[in-house]
Amino acid sequence: MVLDESELKEEQRLILRGIKELLDKYGESYWQEVDNKNEYPSRFVDEFAKAGFMGAVIPEEYGGSGLGLTEASIILEEINANGGNAQPFHGQYYLSWLVSKFASNYIKDQYLPKLARGEIRMQSMALTEAEAGSDMTKVKTFAEKRDGKYVINGNKIFISRVKYSDLIVVVARTTPYENVEKKTDGLSIFVVDLRQTKGIVINEIKTMFNSQTYELFFENVEVPEENLIGDEGKGFSYIMHALNPERILIASECIGDARWFIGKAVGYAKIRNVFGRPIGQNQGVQFPIAKVYAELVAADAVRLKAAKLYDSGMEDMKKIGELANIAKYLASECAWEAANVTMDTYGGYGMAVDTGIERKFRASRLYKVAPVSNNLVLAYIAHNVLGIPKSY
Predict the structure, then answer these.
(1) Which of 170, 225, 294, 368 measures 20 to 30 Å from 158, CA to CA?
(2) Environment class of 330 (CB within 10 Å of its CB; exposed 0-12, middle 13-18, buried 19+)
(3) Pick from 54, 88, 117: which residue ends a domain?
(4) Residue 227: pLDDT over 80
(5) How confident is the model at residue 302 (pLDDT cuts 50, 70, 90)?
(6) pLDDT at residue 73 is higher than 50
(7) Which of 117, 143, 175 is the last residue of a domain?
(8) Does residue 203 share a domain with residue 265?
């Protein structure tokens, strides 16, 4: 285990122990079965919620545990390190912070207690659009204010877990792009209650791994004025407060995946005998595993530093953004390399479904391109950290 439990606080050790006890009930065979059927892991999610983990980061005043990003990172890492997939939870975590920090008291009172108890779910943010891509300032979905409500029209793509969420957070323009002084102005964020909303058409997008992903069409979708998060037109800054934790949480899942892959590679290298000796005796097998383990330790250190900095309440979003993006980059690259090293170690057996290698192999590829491409992470570092002239 990369995470050094001796450095954890007692509360963090208890959290780790609790998630491990839950994971013991759901072995790799469960996750393989869910993948084979291309299903949402409903049983695990339900028990996760009953154990109180769904409301882990919601403030105590609303019935949550009030935990920080460090604790959330530990939880998600451990799920993936045990062969699972923590995707259903990172969305609810970073969106819970978004709502807790910037939503009105009405929205907080209306939804946070129910989210904390696991009665409802908020696992999805509708941001990405086909033409805008990673340039969120170019989104065209528009929310027009009419008679005390907003009417939303437009479409979103690659939006996850919508059919398994009661609430989604929608990013839309409230001022046309051509009418703003700064391109980041005019964006607004809304909490949309799917249980009470009409006019959203949901089409599933098939992907290379088990991921409930959809395209959404908004057709005169009415949202109460009270469901606006923060001030109208100032949504860009609020989104930044959500995306930095998101990157750190994604890094944690990748670190969990890398741990899982390395554990599999090491175990197989010890027991697989070819030409009368374990394949692990060959440096051609040893060195790739050792190299990716070294990269894992480095990624883990940056991830934990980023999480602790965020939890400290530091207001320097530039510094947090730097570490969050670097953590996501290092961890996703490490997980993908670990996947390839493990596949090479297993040889043809890695392609067998029952080993689980190909399942996690497919899933680990996602985070090199989502929720932001690693090339754009490098561009961010070049432009915003190193001060190199912008390439776009």
Answers:
(1) 225
(2) buried
(3) 117
(4) yes
(5) very high
(6) yes
(7) 117
(8) no
- Do residues 191 and 99 make contact, with C-beta atoms less than 8 angstroms apart? yes
Separation between Cα atoms, residue 112 and residue 180, nearest integer Å? 33
Residue in 332, 328, 343, 362 with CA at minimum distance from that of residue 261: 343
- Dump pLDDT digits (tens) for 314-365: 877 889 999 999 999 999 999 999 999 999 999 999 999 999 999 999 999 9
State whether 265 and 214 are in the same domain.
no
66 CB neighbour count, 10 Å cutoff: 16
CATH number at residue 106: 1.10.540.10
Domain for residue 368, yes or no? yes
Residue 185 backbone zone (phi > 0: left; psi -120 to 50: alpha; other: beta):
beta
Give the count of domains, the chain.
Answer: 3
The total of other beta-carbon atoms located within 10 Å of residue 348's CB is 7
For 88, the domain range is 5-117
Q: What is the pLDDT of residues 273-288, one digit of tens each?
A: 999 999 999 999 999 9
